[in-house]
Automatic annotation (TrEMBL), chains A, B:
Record-given protein name: Recombination protein RecR
Source organism of the structure: Bacteroides reticulotermitis
PANTHER family, sorted: RECOMBINATION PROTEIN RECR
Function as written in the Swiss-Prot or TrEMBL entry: May play a role in DNA repair. It seems to be involved in an RecBC-independent recombinational process of DNA repair. It may act with RecF and RecO.
Keyword Transport carried by entry: no
Keyword DNA repair in record: yes
Annotated family: Belongs to the RecR family.
Molecular function per GO: DNA binding; zinc ion binding
Keywords: DNA damage, DNA recombination, DNA repair, Metal-binding, Zinc, Zinc-finger
Zinc-finger ranges (C4-type): 60-75
Length: 205, 205
């Protein structure tokens, strides 16, 4: 359907919204018209929230997590175990691990995983800063918590090769049967790996 | 999952995005992090597009369609047949009819349909202004193009009662078999109505 917009401003707003991932022009139109029905302060609050975030957000100098301050709340918290560093891909993974309330160490946000297909190499990630962080001492264990994909495994191995000569224990989160799953429906690979739980990492999982 | 946001600014932005219809907190997070990966001008363009739209958009004084000017492009176009007025619910319907390229008259955007369940009465809609518009003369035919629902039919009837004493022809868009549908799969009501095509409106369709 070749849409003719009644307003250039409307067309621009719909264009901007439809650039978002998973948002087509029809959904964008619905969202824009929804906002247009709200009052002026609500719309300003919406638009400014993302502009302010982009302008003022910082990334923690230690773990590269999003933060309002130079050092994030987690790294600055003296209650947390600074000798334990969990390596994750992005801040959503930090939030996912935090939500479990099972982890009391710090994080290191890589910013992705090594993926030659997407043009992401080790230098695009915060791997050097992880090595530097471990090299400075005080880190007893690095827990690898990346996606259980080919790219995640590749990144795990790359980090292993970078850290194996250093005095630090490397571990990887357990791959296994999801809580609530029945054994008979689990795939063989997962079931095979479920025997081990947070095993010392020796290059392969 | 009780999420703890690493940044108050991030939480605010996610909160604003998750107010949008059909956008939950997980999707909101995904959208916000997507925008955060864009450069500063891109994010400012996004945020300002909706703020500018809300601040500067006008509604056509004649048909109440969204417009950049006091009188919209359609109403201001001398090529269009000003004696023909198509009554629609909202501007998306204007765009849908425009996209057919089958209509050369003007529009009247009601802003919804009568729906007591949602607290929408005739006074919440641009019905009085339609009656006023017809009363000023020059309108030969009013085409009702509302949703084919109970609320749409109610609104059609309300408008019919308001206009029946006036010197104007009332018609309603044809309800019938969708193009591409096979007759045997059409419901009986639709099939029954498909015999008529844009019939003179006499209170019932």
């Amino acid at each position: 359907m070749n849409q003719q917009y009644p307003s250039a401003l409307l067309e621009k707003a719909v264009g901007e919204f439809s650039k978002l991932p998973g948002i087509g022009r029809k959904t964008a139109m619905r969202l824009v018209l929804h906002l247009l029905r709200q009052d002026q302060p609500t719309v300003e609050a919406f638009g400014n929230s993302i502009i302010t975030l982009k302008r003022e957000v910082k990334y923690c100098k230690v773990c590269h997590n999003i933060s309002d301050t130079e050092i994030c709340q987690i790294c600055a918290n003296p209650q947390r175990d600074a000798s334990l560093v969990c390596v994750v891909e992005n801040i959503r993974d930090v939030m996912a691990v935090e939500a479990t309330q099972q982890y009391k160490g710090l994080y290191h946000v890589l910013g992705g995983v090594i993926s030659p297909m997407d043009g992401v190499g080790p230098s695009d990630l915060q791997i050097d800063s992880l090595v530097h962080r471990v090299g400075e001492g005080g880190v007893r264990e690095v827990v690898l918590a990346l996606s259980t994909t080919m790219e995640g495994d590749t990144t795990n191995f790359y980090i292993y090769r970078k850290l194996e000569k250093m005095d630090v224990k490397l571990s990887v989160i357990a791959r296994g049967i999801s809580v609530g799953d029945e054994l008979e429906y689990a795939d063989e690979v997962t079931l095979g790996r479920s025997i081990v739980n947070r095993t010392p990492f020796t290059g392969t999982v």
